[in-house]
Amino acid sequence: MRRLSGFFPERTGAPGWRTMPLPRAPLLLLGVALESFVLGALCGSPAHSLSYFYLHLREPSKGLPQFFLRGYLDDQPINHFDSLTRKMEPLVPWMEEGEKENFLVPEWVFRADLEKLSKLGHRAGGRHTWQVVLGCKISQDGSKEGFLHYGYDGMDFISFNKETLRWVAAQPQAQKLKQKWEDDSGWSEGNKDFLEEPCIEWLQRYLSYRKEALQRIEPPVGKVTHKEVDDHLEVLICQAFGFYPKEIQATWTRDGEICQYETLPRNVAPNSDGTYYVWLSIEIDPKERDRFRCRLEHQGLQEPLILAWKEET
What is the DSSP string of 242-262? Predict the structure, then answer.
């Protein structure tokens, strides 16, 4: 299998990481979670993360890729690669004009190690999956973290502790692999170097791409819909979409008072254009519908946006 460029570890000869230069900044700056850091509708995350989720199917069904990889910046999918298209596809507009050859190309990312793992045979037969999650995070206080986890059929298998250079086996079958990888000091040190240097550099660069592309502040657009349950109960749904940055305050009020306990909030989620949306619902007596309002507060609004349900014509 031909190896494509990337900055993942190459297990040949002396172990280590193949690194590649950071892309040159284009004229128009455009820029990993499974382990994305998703918070609720009432606040946004002060931390930033870059993470990649890799899935390998030992016996894929017809029409399904044998493996795919998806990258995330914070909670937002930013690129995708699979064995069918064999192309790294940007998933947000601000990455479309980036230098695609410098995106992670995962054809051989974890191939060698997954081939070794698949020979363990602790579950013979059937369609099983290997997963890998790796990435890094910068917290609000400037501290940096890195993570690398291997999973089997959706369960933890073995993970890396970059501070101790040790591997943590989550399954008995991983003990032999743990010993083998810990005996290979270059392999562990290479993982540590990647999580602390290239991964952090790419995280900072992608953040600059997104910031440049989304310098303007986008206020939320909102509306209220309703769903009848029975004669004595209905659900009001408040939707806010198209806003940036992510932080938004969304609440239901009754006669101007916040309905803190009755509200059913949902997580803020990303749109494909780099903005965000959120919705929250509340169960009410239909006779009291006119007493409820949805209140949205956002950096893009000069004053709170107050929304009530209106019958559509």
Answer: EEBSS--EEEEEETTEE-TTT
Alpha carbon distance 16, 191 (integer Å): 8
Rg of the chain on CA atoms, in Å: 23
In this prediction, residue 84 has a pLDDT band, given cuts at 50, 70 and 90, of: confident
d(CA 279, CA 297): 14
Nearest to 147 by CA among 137, 134, 158, 157: 134
Distance between CA atoms of 183 and 199, rounded to whole angstroms? 24
pTM of the model: 0.62
Give the 3-state DSSP-derived string for 70-94, with helices as H, strands as E and coil as C: EEEECCEEEEEEECCCCCCEECCHH
Strands (E), 29-162: 48-57, 67-73, 76-82, 89-90, 129-138, 144-152, 155-161
CA distance 299 to 77: 24
Strand partners, 243: 276
Cβ partners under 8 Å of residue 175, min gap 6? 169
Which of the four pLDDT bands, split at 50, 70 and 90, describes residue 188? confident
